[in-house]
Amino acid sequence: MTTMSSVPWLTIVGLVPLVGALLVAFVPGSAENAKRMALGFSLVTLVVGVVAATQFDRGASTQFQLGEQHSWIPQFGVSYSLGVDGIALVLILMALVLTPICLLAAWRDVPEEVGPGGARRTKTYFALLLVLETFMVGVFAATDVFLFYVFFEAMLIPVYFLIGRFGGARRQYAAMKFLLFSLAGGLIMLVAVIALYLQGPGGSDGFLIERLTGLSLDPTTERLLFVGFFFAFAVKAPMVPFHTWLPDAATESSPATATLLVGVLDKVGTFGMIRFCLQLFPQASEWATPVVVALAVLSVIYGALLAIGQTDMMRLVSYTSVSHFGFIVLGIFAFTNVGHAGANLYMVNHGFSTAALFLFAAMLVRRRGSKRIPDFGGWQRVTPALAGIFLVAGLSGLALPGLSSFVSEFLVLVGSFPTQPVAAVIATSGIILAALYILLMYKKVMTGPKPEGLVGVREHDRLDESGRRGLTAVRDLTTREKIVAAPLIAAFLVLGFLPNLALDVINPAVDQTLSHVQKAIPNLNPAGTLAEGSSK
Amino acid sequence: MTAVAPLALPAAFQPSNVDYLAILPLLIVFGAALVGVLVEAFAPRERRHVIQVGLAVVGLLGAAVAIIPAAGHQGVTMGLADGSTNRQMFALAVDGPALFMQGTIVLMGVLGILTMAERFGGTGPDAFTPSGASTPGSANETAAARAGALTSEVFPLTMFAIFGMMLFPTTNDLIGMFVALEVLSLPLYILSGLARRRRLLSQEASLKYFLLGAFSSAFFLFGTALLYGYAGSVYFGDLSRAIASGPLAMNGLLLPGAFLVFVGLLFKVGAVPFHAWTPDVYQGAPTPVTGFMAACTKAAAFGAILRLAYVGLDTGRWEWTNALVLVALLTMVVGAVLSVTQTDMKRLLAYSSIAHAGFILVGVLAFDRKAIGAVLFYLVAYGFATIAAFAIVSLVRQNGAEATHLSQWAGLGKRYPVVAGAFAFLMLAFAGIPLTSGFVSKFAVFSAAVGTGGATGTVLAVVGVVCSAITVFVYARVIVLMFFSDAPDDAVEVVTPSVSTTFSIAIGTLVTLALGVLPSALLDLADRASQFVR
């Protein structure tokens, strides 16, 4: 059930960054020009994406809109079929907003090299980020299981190169670990993908989601298929105990890569649970709920505890994500409208707040030359503006009311309480732990006596004066960094005070998904008991 | 009493019916090979190389074109039908799989020849010694080199091998299959021993290949004898009918016969436990020959295995399937696991080829028309990628000799991004990453296995997927070395190849990409070509 679009909007949104990547990689010119071109293409993509979003009809009765469908490999039953529902649309828009921010934040990531070909590394870096954007659009827009799988796996390659070539000291290890974890999950999913097709109606378009929805599967088969898909998504999301690749990958890669990896790519895991596990295997999802919810709560608590114990700023941020993904999964497997809406909104908010934490922390790391929290202290006296935005990012991470993540965390907990009261209560303690890890980090990094030997200067102050006084000058936020920070903070506030901007798009899609589940499990009550009162 | 044996010969001599258009591709290649021998004898030395390469390429392209009319003349040929006993005694079966394999082998042969023809500015092909028969390092060898001897006979030898490879999947009886096996093998034994550098290794490879190859041929022949004893005929059609109607008591001949024949064929594809020669020969043989051998021999031998499994021994399937399943499992696991520990690029690719043989066997064991198409597609995808990969290996040099140790490849991507990029892409294809031909082909065989192979097929597919995951580590490690590591001080260089090698690498890589992004045309062709005649 897809509303077709006369203009292939989604293909265009996906193609613009790909064309940009090719031009950035192969057009001769300076590194600076390549960066500008990459940023330009990502902004054009955003504009096209926004235009496409205006074509989206929130009241439509079909599940997918802006649809396109062409036969791709009819022998396997594969179509090139794109379409979005509200869930996919907001995630795509989030990716489109984050990409230019990341490109801008990555401006100085690759050191300048002199000589002919010196710009090549920079060009490769920016081109890979754009290629990644193409795949991010594709993976959320695919309405064909095989096509989704192709994007899901192909996405690994640019990330693998981004980590392995532009990362920190242990980047080889991190890149390999990332690749092997993701591929192990993906290949198990491949077997499930093949088996799913054989269970379906088959034919030359047998991989379309709409043809595979509502199959009456044998319970054992359905459970096996569910496990095949869920495993890949749990690795991707990442959930405890499959999360160990994330801290390594996020810490060793460049901040921009880490942001896209955790902020967008990992969402494919939770997105996949909604789109594939719940929609295609509703009964098996219900069957697996106790285990999944237990893992989700474990992720919430364990991720938060690990975050508290970290001394590496980037590692801390990545463990907070493990905790937040626990919340998202809890919301999804609560099987209530509110929980689902909360989980979906959470995915968007987490994208922005994690981006802020990674990118702002990276600004600190670049100034100090160390990721270790004990190496900081008293920095709010050196870089007051940076300290300010860092605090805002942190508060968004701990879901302060008024900021966007509060709304989603609240919805998830309220939505999961009717069906999973115990889990919801335990997960609520995750909020307290979140306050601990964020505020402790802020305290250690920003407060305390002013560090000796450092002097804070504004962007355009002259550095040599401080040098004469035997002090090392540290600049506060530069204009570029302010441009990076502004849209993220704006997103926190806008979505914090007007969450309905996103919820109005998400809610119809949530109803659609849960109606598929309800068809298979009639006694399910997605409205929950508290749902009506609290969603208003 | 079996149904067909003993079989009386026809009373009077009857000339066999030959459909010359159907076998035109075979004739063209054979003719070009023969002319090549004459060229070797009569053409002046300085022009021999150009003439040989031109002749081979033209011959192969001519054969490729001739496949189009041959496709209109499908059926059994070269033999006669006996009306009284209703027997079909034809030596060749020109059908979809045979012609598809012929086309594949011919086109991959062109790339193989072009890679072998690389001279790097010298007079003769760079990969081959000017004097293969002389002792390495001896005065004879020096004299031959000084006299300007060159090894242009590799081209007619390759053409004979290609002829044998084309014949191999086309034969319709066990004796013909044996002849084809020998025709394709003998030139390869020679070619393996002709490496210009590291000659002792090359000669060892040649001898090893020859001895083990002869051994496996003997197995094949012995199996043929047993099967003849069982069915009273060597024709696949008779064999199939005899098994269908034969008494159980005769299984004492059938089982060992079928097993031994399969041993001979599995040896050629490098399936475990008949794989021991593969790493040594792949490493010792001149690199262009290795690429050619890996791609084309595998294609030909799998064509033959398909015919044997689907036409000759199809009715006795339950007798030998379990053994073949075991072989497929072992091949995938051993190939994948041992490739992890390799430190030499050519040995790594050899173990990779073993693992791939296992994946293809999974497709063979699905016993379905769709599976045949999947296997055919896999052979094309794997072959083109392999030829390009070995061609790239032959370009990476240190002090003039090939640098095949993995550590020597460190940092290659930083200094030669295009070549290393192409190689990385081929590695991703071997690993089966989506948007490469490797993914589509693995998907094709595994989905065929899950779809029609029953529980066994599912198990095979799951093991295949796990093994794919293991091999990903191997290929990813190569990429790590090339792109993420720093180059050592005595860094290797990538020599600039001539147009011919560049063409081979470019085509191999482009085919790998094209079959990954838009595979449906070839899948369709493979599917239409997946019907055997009997």
Show the helix and strand layout.
The complex is a heterodimer of chains A (about 525) and B (about 525).
Chain A: E1 2-4, H1 9-26, H2 31-54, E2 64-73, E3 78-84, H3 86-105, H4 120-141, H5 145-154, H6 156-166, H7 171-199, H8 209-212, H9 219-236, H10 245-252, H11 255-265, H12 267-280, H13 282-308, H14 313-332, H15 337-368, H16 384-397, H17 404-416, H18 421-446, E4 454-457, H19 464-468, E5 472-475, H20 479-497, H21 500-520, H22 531-535
Parallel strand pairs in A: 1-2, 4-5
Antiparallel strand pairs in A: 2-3
Helix pairs in contact in A: 1-2, 1-4, 2-3, 2-4, 3-4, 3-11, 3-15, 3-20, 3-21, 4-5, 4-6, 5-7, 6-7, 7-9, 7-10, 9-12, 9-13, 10-11, 10-14, 11-15, 12-13, 12-21, 13-14, 13-18, 14-15, 14-17, 14-18, 15-16, 15-17, 15-20, 15-21, 16-18, 17-18, 17-20
Chain B: H1 24-42, H2 45-71, E1 75-82, E2 87-94, H3 96-116, H4 139-146, H5 154-167, H6 174-192, H7 199-231, H8 236-245, H9 251-269, H10 277-284, H11 287-312, H12 317-340, H13 345-364, H14 369-393, E3 396-398, E4 401-402, H15 412-415, H16 417-431, H17 437-452, H18 454-484, E5 493-494, H19 499-517, H20 520-528
Antiparallel strand pairs in B: 1-2, 3-4, 3-5
Helix pairs in contact in B: 1-2, 1-5, 2-3, 3-5, 3-11, 3-14, 3-19, 5-6, 5-11, 6-7, 6-11, 7-8, 7-9, 7-10, 9-11, 10-11, 10-13, 11-13, 11-14, 12-13, 12-18, 13-14, 13-17, 13-18, 14-16, 14-17, 14-19, 14-20, 16-18, 16-19, 17-18, 17-19
Q: Would you kindly provide a written description of the structure presented here, covering whatever features stand out?
A:
The complex is a heterodimer of chains A (536) and B (534). With 536 residues, chain A is mostly helical. Chain A has a domain at 285-450 and 482-536. Chain A has helices spanning 9-26, 31-54, 86-105, 120-141, 145-154, 156-166, 171-199, 209-212, 219-236, 245-252, 255-265, 267-280, 282-308, 313-332, 337-368, 384-397, 404-416, 421-446, 464-468, 479-497, 500-520, 531-535, and strands at 2-4, 64-73, 78-84, 454-457, 472-475. In chain A, the strands form 2 sheets. A 3-stranded mixed β-sheet of chain A has the order 1-2-3. In chain A, 61% of the residues are buried. Helix content of chain B is 69%, strand content 4%. Chain B is mainly alpha-helical. A 3-stranded antiparallel β-sheet of chain B has the order 4-3-5, with no helix packed on it. A two-stranded antiparallel sheet of chain B has the order 1-2. The interface between A and B is medium-sized, with 34 and 35 residues.
